[in-house]
Amino acid sequence: MTDPSTIERHSYDVLVVGAGGAGLRAAIAARDAGARVAVICKSLLGKAHTVMAEGGAAAAMGNVYSEDSWQVHFRDTMRGGKMLNHWRMAQLHAQEAPDRIHELEEWGALFDRTPDGLISQRDFGGHRYARLAHVGDRTGLELIRTLQQRTVALGIDVYMECTVTRLLQSDGRIAGAFGYWRESGRFIVFEAPTVVLATGGIGKSYKVTSNSWEYTGDGHALALQAGASLVNMEFVQFHPTGMVWPPSVKGILVTESVRGDGGVLRNSEGKRFMFDYIPEFFKAETADSEEEADRWYKDKTNNRRPPELLPRDEVARAINSEVKAGRGSPHGGVFLDIASRHPAEYIQRRLPSMYHQFKELADVDITAEAMEVGPTCHYVMGGVAVEPDTAESAVPGLYAAGEVAGGMHGANRLGGNSLSDLLVFGRRAGTAAAEAAASVTERAAVSDDDIRTAAEDALAPFEREGGENAYSVQQDLQDVMHNLVGIIRSADEMQKALEELDRLRQRTAQLSVEGHRQYNPGWHLALDLSNMLLVSECIAKAALERTESRGGHTRDDFPATDDTWATVNLHCSLDESEQAVSIQREPLPSMPDDLRDLFEEK
Amino acid sequence: MTRLSIFDPEETVTVTPLRTFPVIRDLVTDVSYNYEKAKQVPTFAPEPRQPDGTYRMQQEDVERGQEFRKCIECYLCQTVCHVVRDHEDNKTAFAGPRFFLRYAELEMHPLETNDHREAASAEAGVGMCNITKCCTEVCPEGIKITDNAIIPVKERVADRKYDPLVWLGSKIFRRSSDT
User: Out of B53, B56, B65, whose CB is closest to A110?
Assistant: First the structure.
């Protein structure tokens, strides 16, 4: 079973782990650059979490507002990220997003159009101009299908329902990866001088989340174990609007487009409470009366944005406060009302998936009544620290793109910036990995000892008897993170969380799995759990360290934003023994003057 | 969509594996048939961009293809299609409703330059569908697979094969393809 000579082996130039938008875009780029490339994914091709993105992909194409430009998009992104973003990533992203959207059309994507036939663009929180290319409210699905069909057309090898459990290295450099087929439980080894991580996020460590079962932080953990560092892990985005009722759908996303298209938030008293929560930082550009806010939808030049479209962290905190103050909806959320603001036909045309989702799942007709919504864990800003131009981590040959990479979004991500992020940096990672692979003259061999160890580790849960099953540990982990390292945090709670995580780690080490290796979800979760624990520890430790509130990190005991923290990033890494996470403070990369000047005007 | 609330608490709910595909374990089936068929769908070949680097399309023209691109690839249509459900040997010659959507999408794409009618007929076997609409009935996205995709593709295939003028034209002008 664990004899390396009997294990299935493949050899490639570039190995892409994850088949969401970033992974597929990376694979296409690597193939275009002449590399032999394989994509590995935990689920079937085309099922990645990218499909859940609803609103759109942000790109300053200027199709609706010709005043828009990459400079404005860059500025919005940095301000949304509370200036903690890596400026170079934000710059590349804003500059290249339009080309990345346009090329999707060459591969068959069908975006919604403006009256003169160009790609239509919609409004979203934190974006100064209508900027999101979209397909109704299923933009992510369009993206994944387009990239998926391109991947198939290029004949790229895809290993479906296959999980990577360990990166293989030789003298620190990437040499390949070890994994197993979910279907058979058999092991598989890939030899490759470069690996692109595109594994997405970590949301399954939280109780209420919009994220899919795949989001167990695999790439974050693999990178840590390989010696890379994670940056900005304290910043977790809670999307302000997730479904809250019925319990079986709690956390499922309600797209921000509802607000972009005119939906407003009200509390149990019927009040548009967001006017009470406009922070000083955004006062100049936010409407302070309902009249002005309502005029903005028609005339954006002479009116300021409604406060419902403030960045997500602001809106999520406001909803949280309203509910805590006893002004919530019957099931512990607030009301999101579009029914009273637009005719049914408009709502059904603009938000078809939302209409369908509420009708089918909650028996609510959103053209006739308000939705109940509340915050849901949505996105991790933190991820593998990478070099912006190549997306390469500190480990030679290891790249990261999309949600698993860090730096691009700083302390808070703007809606619509993730789809464009994964296109821009997916392509950059794929191209850079292909070039690096081509320049490697002598390929490092994967060591039999490493393979044997990886195989034994993977099988360990079968060897133990009488232990707990993985599901109960996962549930407890989700409770700990939700209750103690959630939207509002404090030192004593996070200290308690770290103690709990320690206990959970001991329990995880004693898990046992029943049955055999063929399609055994309990076993799969047992292996994923150690990744979830590692990532959760990073989040809790970084959040404890940052004694201020900023973006997706709010401290009850340090409610103000502190300027001394404005120039500091926190990096997480593993010590030599791979046992403990340590935190290092790093200065923020300094922005060139011509970009800094963009923040001076107004 | 099936919700537990539509059942009586006393009622027994029966769950079975998809019938068209081989069982791997419990309810898990091997759906690789679909991914093999996906590889046979022709590649999109668009016309060149406008001089300003954009493509221009009208909303009403993209909406036809957008309906098909709502597909979430649950493969329910594939599993209820009796052409493959009850006749294992048809699987080699028949791509199934999910992939007829792809042909319809290509045929109706405002930018597509190729003619896919021969492939739809010869490789995907659209002619074997006898329009029982089982696929449309089960589609969770409400895509009108039969009416909006399969029948138009069948009609286009038939136009190509049997239009007497086209036939005559191809004989007289020795054109191997029609327009």
Answer: B65
B54–A contact, CB cutoff 8 A: yes
Identity of the amino acid at B159: D
Whole-angstrom distance, CA of residue A487 vs CA of residue A105: 38
Give the position of tokens 């949301």: A203
Q: How far apart are CA A227 and CA A573, in angstroms?
A: 7
Closest chain B C-alpha to A172 CA, distance in angstroms: 37
Handedness of CA A160, A166, A167, A168 (dihedral sign): negative
Residue of A nearest to B106 (CA): A108
Q: Residue A384 corresponds to which tokens in the numbers above?
A: 């593998």
Q: Which element (helix H / strand E) includes A264?
A: strand A264-266
Amino acid (one-letter) located at A435: E
8 Å CB contact between B30 and A44? no
Angstrom distance (rounded) from CA B36 to CA B58: 33
Interface test with B, best of A49, A54, A101, A113 (most B CBs within 10 A): A113
Average pLDDT in chain A: 95
Task: Judge contact between A376 and A238, C-beta under 8 A.
Answer: yes
Give strand pairing partners of A257.
none
Tokens at A168, concatenated: 């293989």
Chain B residues near residue A105 by CB distance under 8 angstroms: 46, 55, 111
Burial of A592 (0-12, 13-18, 19+ CB in 10 A): exposed
3-state secondary structure of A159: strand
Q: What is the pTM of this model?
A: 0.93
| Calpha distance A167→A484 (Å, rounded) | 31
Assess: ipTM above 0.95.
no
Distance CA A229, CA A542 (A): 12
CA distances from A289 to A293, A310, B96 (A): 6, 15, 55
For residue A64, give how far its alpha carbon lies from the nearest alpha carbon of chain B (Å).
14
Q: Report strand pairing: A37-40 vs A157-159.
A: parallel
CB A344 within 8 A of CB A365: no
What is the CB-side half-sphere exposure of residue B61 using CA atoms within 13 A? 18
Whether the CB-CB separation of B135 and B68 falls below 8 Å is answered with no
pLDDT in tens, A172-205: 999 999 999 999 999 999 999 999 999 999 999 9
- In chain B, the domains with their CATH numbers are 12-41+58-172 (1.10.1060.10)
N residues, chain B: 179
Tokens coding A154: 């290029």
Structure tokens, B51: 């001089």
Residues in A closer than 8 angstroms to B18, CB to CB, are none
Q: Which of A467, A383, A395, A392 is nearest to A430 (CA)?
A: A392
Helix (H, G, I), strand (E, B) or coil at A172: coil
CB neighbours of residue B36 within 10 Å: 11
pLDDT tens by residue, A434-479: 999 999 988 888 999 999 999 999 999 999 988 899 999 999 999 9
A136 in contact with chain B, both atoms CB, cutoff 8 A: yes
Is the peptide bond prior to A246 cis by the omega test (within 30 degrees of 0)?
A: yes
Domains present along chain A, CATH in parentheses: 4-237+379-439 (3.50.50.60), 239-377 (3.90.700.10), 453-562 (1.20.58.100)
Contact A74, A24 (CB under 8 A): no
DSSP H helix total and E strand total for chain A: 16, 22
Sign of CA dihedral A381, A386, A387, A391: negative
| Structural Rg of chain B based on CA atoms | 19
**Looking at residue B179, what is its pLDDT?**
45
Residues of A involved in catalysis = 239, 259
Phi, psi (degrees; rounded to nearest 5) at A398: -105, 120
d(CA A578, CA A562): 33
